[in-house]
Specification:
The structure holds 2 protein chains of 2 kinds. By secondary structure, chain A is mainly alpha-helical. Chain A has helices at 2-46, 58-94, 97-112, 115-141, 158-182, 186-194, 199-228, 231-236, 254-261, 268-297. In chain A, helix 2 runs antiparallel to helix 7 and helix 9 (254-261) runs antiparallel to helix 10. Chain A has one domain: MetI-like fold (Orthogonal Bundle). Chain A has 10 helices and no strands. The longest helix of chain A has 45 residues, at 2-46. By secondary structure, chain B is of the alpha/beta class. Chain B has a domain at 5-94 and 170-254: P-loop containing nucleotide triphosphate hydrolases (Rossmann fold, 3-Layer(aba) Sandwich), CATH 3.40.50.300. Chain B is 35% helix and 25% strand. Chain B has a 6-stranded mixed beta sheet with strand order 6-7-8-3-9-10, with helices on both faces. In chain B, helix 7 (182-195) links the parallel strand 7 (170-174) and strand 8. Chain B is globular and about 55 Å long. The chains are: A mainly alpha, B alpha/beta.
Chain lengths: 305, 259
């Protein structure tokens, strides 16, 4: 009796120690990365404007690619989120069980495709295929600034990159949303059905409100991936100066900029690129904090109580 | 508004499994009918066929007729959604929508029916339904707070308010007090007594005293053994079932010899 409880207590100690160690380790790694970025980025922040690429100082260099990154990620989210939620709902609440598990499996497989393959697909297949569409947009809707011509003849514009990004973040948003939707309490679904809700009304009354925090987390994870995705953008986008048009060549994202220039960089340019990385880090951090804030703001109505 | 229910030769299946066999029962309008019986005897399953809620489970279906004032709810072309908006249901565990306020919970069913109602009408309906569920005085100052912040008994009465807000013909209750403490149970039982003035109430209960207290008529369901279908053994005035049942099994059950 005493022996077993003593060993149980030792087990408790070992477990709590390991758990705490793991927690501290994560904080240390995060802190280490942040410290590295800040220290290495510092020279670029205080360098003479003429020494930075473009010759107009760090902020003039970083601003266009920050905007390019945000545009690409935002378009990707706008495309991917409704599709992902629709697919997740179909799998969790509409499809017959056998089709649902098969489809879920295929969606998960999409996540296993390496990003360089997506990039190659985007550059070799999607871009040429979509180029005529861009030409049409420029000809017919060219008066809208985002579709201003001349359209990229190769199709390697930021919109193509964003579409590739959307396909890449689709699986993560879909599979997380699906898991959340499947956890909707039967009790709440039946409450809606018993009131005379159709299946779609039941989804709106019970499933989506219950899944809201989960959907937000899933979208934020997708956004994180879209912001940081490097290879696909580097392959698909024919980069250049910041432009409002989504169908011209031009624009650039932070991650692709770092990847393309890092191998040949030297001196203060290395620091500049690391500083760009720091900015990306800060953006991602801010996005996650906003997401957390949105989730906690609605805690009272979340059903957790 | 309240309607009678006549069930003819109803068989309920889960896939190939016959869960409830050959039920014939006539439930009067504006009365309280209790279903009693041991666990697994099919009384909840049968209750759920009365508003076609059992069809929610994949593979479940029913054969036979359920006539609501003469109209078969299993007739060709009858939409289960319409049936359910006509026959309200209260569940074993209180299930207010956690993301909605008390007020929105009461209005949930009304909004489903695509009725555009003005704020004044909505306010009046919320008050009337909550009054009808004996909950108004307890929540009138916090209608915008989440329904999940109420006590279990209050949540169950909120669910009753939500069900009666759409003015259904029949109110089905599936063990509505089994998750509640005695005081809350008393509050819900008092409410059932008042509800029968306007609604046909059918209640499933495991608590025989509760059946004796609240119901006008009682139906006893039983099952011959595991894997066998549940059957309606006896249906009569509640006092007859408890004092002078005609079937041996009923007498054994109500006198506590099994179940």
């Amino acid at each position: 009796m005493t022996g077993s409880s003593a060993s149980g207590r030792a087990g408790d100690k070992v477990f709590s120690g390991t758990a705490m160690g793991a927690g501290i380790l994560i904080l240390l790694v995060l802190f280490g990365v942040a410290a590295f970025l800040v220290v290495q980025a510092f020279p670029a922040l205080v360098a003479k404007p003429a020494d930075i690429q473009g010759g107009a100082g760090f902020w003039a260099y970083i601003a266009p690619i920050v905007i390019g990154t945000l545009i690409a990620a935002a378009i990707a989210l706008v495309i991917a989120t409704p599709v992902a939620i629709g697919v997740a709902l179909f799998i969790s609440h509409y499809a017959p069980r056998r089709l649902a598990s098969g489809l879920g499996y295929v969606i998960d497989l999409l996540a296993a495709i390496p990003s360089v393959v997506y990039g190659a697909w985007g550059a070799a297949f999607l871009a040429p295929a979509i180029a005529p569409g861009y030409a049409w947009l420029a000809a017919n809707l060219g008066w809208i600034p985002i579709f201003a011509g001349p359209a990229s003849a190769t199709g390697k514009a930021i919109l193509t990159a964003a579409i590739v990004l959307a396909v890449m973040i689709l699986p993560i948003i879909t599979s997380l949303s699906r898991e959340i939707f499947l956890q909707t309490p039967k009790l709440h679904e039946e409450a809606a059905l018993a009131l005379g809700a159709t299946r779609w009304e039941m989804v709106r009354m019970a499933v989506l409100p219950f899944g809201r925090p989960g959907i937000i987390s899933a979208v934020m994870l997708g956004l994180g991936r879209a912001l940081g995705e490097t290879m696909a953008v580097a392959l698909v986008l024919s980069s250049g100066a910041l432009t409002a048009s989504l169908i011209q060549s031009g624009n650039q994202t932070i991650a692709a900029e770092i990847a393309l220039n890092f191998p040949e960089a030297s001196g203060v340019q290395v620091n500049t690129l690391i500083a760009a990385g720091l900015v990306l880090f800060v953006i991602t951090l801010a996005v996650n904090m906003v997401a957390r804030w949105i989730i906690t703001k609605h805690k009272e109505f979340s059903g957790a109580n | 508004m309240s309607k009678r229910i006549d069930v003819k030769d109803l068989n309920v299946y889960y896939g190939n499994f016959l869960a409830v066999e050959g039920v014939n029962i006539n439930i009067e309008a504006k009365s309280v009918t209790a279903f009693i019986g041991p666990s697994g005897c099919g009384k909840s399953t049968f209750l759920r066929t009365l508003n076609r809620m059992h069809e929610v489970i994949p593979g479940a279906y029913a054969k036979g007729e359920v006539l609501l004032d003469g109209a078969d709810i299993y007739g060709a072309g009858v939409d289960p959604v319409t049936v359910r908006s006509n026959i309200g249901m209260v569940f074993q565990r209180p299930n207010p929508f956690p993301t909605m306020s008390i007020r929105d919970n009461v209005l949930a069913g009304v909004k489903l029916n695509n009725k555009r109602i003005s704020k004044g009408e909505a306010d009046a309906l919320v008050e009337k339904s909550l009054q009808g569920a004996n909950l108004w005085n307890e929540v009138k100052d916090r209608l915008d707070k989440p329904g999940s912040g109420l006590s279990g008994g209050q949540q169950q009465r909120l669910c009753i308010a939500r069900a009666i807000a759409v003015e259904p013909a029949v109110l089905l209750m599936d063990e509505p007090c089994s998750a509640l403490d005695p005081i809350s149970t008393l509050a819900v039982e008092d409410l059932i007594n008042e509800l029968k003035d306007s609604y046909t109430v059918v209640i499933v209960t495991h608590n025989m005293q509760q059946a004796a207290r609240v119901s006008d008529k009682t139906a006893f369901f039983n099952i011959a053994g595991t894997g066998k279908p549940g059957k309606l053994i006896e249906f009569a005035e509640t006092s007859t079932i408890f004092n002078n049942p005609s079937q041996k099994a009923t007498e054994d059950y109500v006198s506590g010899r099994f179940g």
